[in-house]
Amino acid sequence: MRVSPLRSVPRVDLLIGLAIMALGTLEAFTVAESYGAAETPELWWVGQAVVTGVLVWYRRRSPVTVFILMILAQYMWHRQGYEQCPVWQLAALLIVFHTIGAHLPVRHGGPWGLAGILIFDSGAVDHRFLPFEEVIFLTVMFGSAYATGLALRGYLLRAHRMADRAARLEMERERRAAEAVAAERNRIARELHDVVAHSVSMMVMQAGALRRRMAVAREDGPGPEAAILSGIEQAGRDAVEELRIMLGALRMPQDEALPQPGLDMVPNLIATVASSGLRVTLETEGDPVRLAPGLDLSAYRIVQEALTNAVKYAGEADARIVVAYRPDRLDLEIADNGGRAATALSTGNGLIGMRERAELFGGRLEAGPRPEGGFRVHATLPIAQAAPMSEAAS
Predict the structure, then answer these.
(1) How many angstroms separate the CA atoms of 189 and 247, rounded?
(2) Looking at the domain 261-393, which fold is it?
(3) Contacts of 242 (CB under 8 A, 6+ apart)
(4) Domains of the chain: which residue ranges?
(5) Which of 162, 240, 266, 268 ranks highest by number of CB atoms within 10 Å?
């Protein structure tokens, strides 16, 4: 879409140009004879005022061109026999001298400003010898206009430098804040390792000691309690290992690769929940492919969270895990036939976490009760083309 030329003109310049046009028109209809015109109104002044206002509109875009055209306009004005300069022309001249100082560096704008002052002081514009006091007046007037432009330019440059410095300081502050966060993460990791890992290890040791004591006390061999205690021991060891991995992630730089569990660890996950009474079967459809580490980890976490909730709510039931490798996606289905409330998992953090992991990779997750009873979690994760596991291993 084509933009109107006036849209690119700053509003202040648009208003100044319109004011010059209005002032020139007013003087043409009121005081033209006082400047040497044959009669009032002097209609051609209106056209010159309009041209001058238009030049002011584009003074920022082409300051040197507008500056030269304004001096030529003054030359043509005096060639008409006028000795005095009307107010609207004087205002326009002061504005373009100011613009030369404000929008050009001194090494470029200084020679132009000096040349303009000398042109007026020498009488080259009005073809007459100027008295000394008029030369001083013109020099001070046009020189002051140029100096105000220089002052404005210096102020804007300082403001720009201060803004850049503030931006650099803000970046430095954010960097230091990130370093402080990293240091705090390391501190938290050490404290978690010292407190949580030690407590879990003690629980595992106590469960193992109790299991062995009960095995010795029973003469007819280990009872069902031994399997439960053995499951507690295994879950505790897995928790300590998981804690070690996660604390390693806190301590290591973000760009370092960490060994994380993936779908190949699902059988071990099934073994850890076997003692809870949940009977789990695992099915794989399609040819397994090597997934990206992040996607592989998220898929494992979805299965892990779904199984954890099945253990909590399904009780002694049957659960089925289906891992389906499609050409463009990975489908995960975890379903059980246990009894639970219809709203289970509907507002839990587990479901939120699983959905976030799926959406992180552009996938989706559905979870809800099954019509025939139980609960079902289904996740679809898009995957890029990858080589089969057998080819990748070779």
Answers:
(1) 5
(2) Heat Shock Protein 90 (3.30.565)
(3) none
(4) 5-130, 261-393
(5) 266
- Find, among 97, 187, 81, 289, the residue nearest to 89 by Cα: 97
Task: Residue 278: name the closest of 340, 195, 216, 332 by CA.
Answer: 340
The predicted-structure confidence for 374-386, as pLDDT tens digits, reads as follows: 899 999 999 865 5
Give 106-147 as a DSSP string. Answer: HHHHHHHHHHHHHHHHTTTTTTSPPPHHHHHHHHHHHHHHHH
Asked whether 387 and 290 are in contact (CB, 8 A), the reply is yes
Q: Specify the pTM.
A: 0.46
Are the C-beta atoms of 21 and 49 separated by less than 8 Å? yes
Tokens for 235?
């879950």
Q: How far apart are CA 341 and CA 312, in angstroms?
A: 12
Give me the sign of the Cα torsion angle 358, 364, 369, 371: negative
Q: Which residue, among 145, 91, 92, has the nearest Cα to 117 in the 3D structure?
A: 145
CA distance 92 to 108: 21
